[in-house]
Every structure is written in structure tokens, then in C-alpha cells.
Amino acid sequence: MNYTVNLSWLESNEQIDIIVLNTNNLSSFNEIYYEIYERAVNIIAADGAANLIRESLMQRNGNQIPTIIVGDMDSISEETKEYFEEVIQIYDSDQDTTDFQKALGYVNNERPTIVIGDLGGRMDHSLHAISVLFDPNHADKSIYLYNSQNLAFPVFKGTTRIIFASKIPWKYFGMIPLCGPAVLTTEGFKWNFNSTLSEIGGIVSACNEVLENQVVIEGDKNILFTCSK
After folding, report:
1. Closest Cα partner for 154 from 134, 138, 178?
2. What kind and span of H or E run contains 80?
């Protein structure tokens, strides 16, 4: 199949949905949240992430509240529940899904979903967030993990054209074959693949660079694409 990933939302006024995951890095959260908040239609706080937003708003005397809080509510404090008493709070007791997965049920598939908060924090949380990107139940969504230093998203089996914004804010790019050995052919990178087998423990594209405003990746497996400053 052929896919197009357009990253123009980074510098346009395109409407987005935001999912906030919990993190201990308040400064990193602030840097992204207040940058993209105004463009958000839905802001979904995953359980304990509501505590994070409350702490940030109290420090800044802000009013950028979430639209929905969802999860099994084992992390959100009573003080936060009261603070956001006018916000929709959805209790979901399902223990077979995480709060992130629950939050994805409330985004609009027609808009990019920007996930902030957890990337680069606890390793298990970060790896789980990456794993969710490849859940076939969410393959119809455009989901991006985003923080002040990194952007990550899935590139699915087939041919994918990635269109960058006019200014590319990252220096390094990676193609990580997390779903098994992948045969990759690429265009537009400093170091391209030509029907090259990429696998964990073998050849993996890291610290690569882009030479054009568009790149093409063709592969026989899903991979993770990363952008880093």
C-alpha cells in the first residue's frame, strides 16, 4: 500500500488532538503543551496526567484545561478531580488496556493526534507508548509521540512518502525495525537503503540525515521512524 505522512502540522494552524501522558519532566511538558494547545480541538488527559496539567496551570496561573480525563483513575488525586470538576471525567476499569489506549478512543481520526508527556521518561512507559503505535486497532489514526527533542511515528509496510514542514527542526533520523527484520529501500536520505535487510542486532539506520523536503521509505514490515534534534 502507499501512504503519505505530512508533517506540515508542525508549523501550520492545522487542528489537532492532544493526548497527555504522565511524566516527571514538567519543564519538557510545558515547552510542548503551551506551544500547541491553541490548535487543539480535544485535549485528553490519561489519568495521572491530569495531576501534571493541574500542577503546571497552578504554577503559571493558566487556564489551558483538558477537555476529557480518562482512565482507571488509580493515579489522579482527589484534589485534581475537584480542580477539574467542570471537565468530563471518564472512569474505565478495564485492566487489559492502559490509560493511553483508553485515551485513543476519544480522538478524531481525521486529525493528527499528538501524544506528549511520556516519551523519554520511564523506559517501560516509553516502550509501551511506542508499542501502541503499531496496534492494528489504531492503524487508521495519525499518531505522533512528541517532546522537545524528538518526534516518533510508525511507518507501515508498503511505500510511505514523508513530507516535512518547510523548516526541518531535526538533525538526526532513524528507521528502527521493531516489528521484525525488514527489507528497506529509501530515497532522500544521506545514507539510503537499497533492498537492505535491517534488523535489531544487525543493520539499523540511526543518526541518518535527510537531503530533501520529502523522503520515501519502502519496506516489507512496519518500522518506527524517529526524528531528533
Report:
1. 134
2. helix 78-83
Contacts of 168 (CB under 8 A, 6+ apart): 210, 213
Residue 95 has pLDDT above 90, yes or no: no
Nearest to 112 by CA among 212, 227, 223, 16: 16
Looking at residue 147, the DSSP 8-state letter turns out to be -
Domains of the chain as residue ranges with CATH: 13-148 (3.40.50.10240), 149-229 (2.60.120.320)
Residue 95 one-letter amino acid: Q
Grid cell, residue 131, equals 508499542
Query: pLDDT tens across 130-170, in order?
Result: 999 998 888 889 999 999 889 999 999 999 999 998 778 89
| CB-CB contact of 155 with 217 (8 Å) | yes
String of b and e for 97-117 (b: at least 16 CB within 10 Å)?
bbbbbbbbebbeeebbbbbbb
On the question of pLDDT at 68 being above 80, the answer is yes
* C-alpha cell, 179: 516489528
Give the separation between CA 226 and CA 132, rounded to whole angstroms: 15
- pLDDT > 80? residue 122: no
pLDDT digits (tens, 9 = 90+) for 161-203: 999 987 788 999 999 999 999 999 999 999 999 999 999 999 9
| Whether pTM exceeds 0.85 | yes
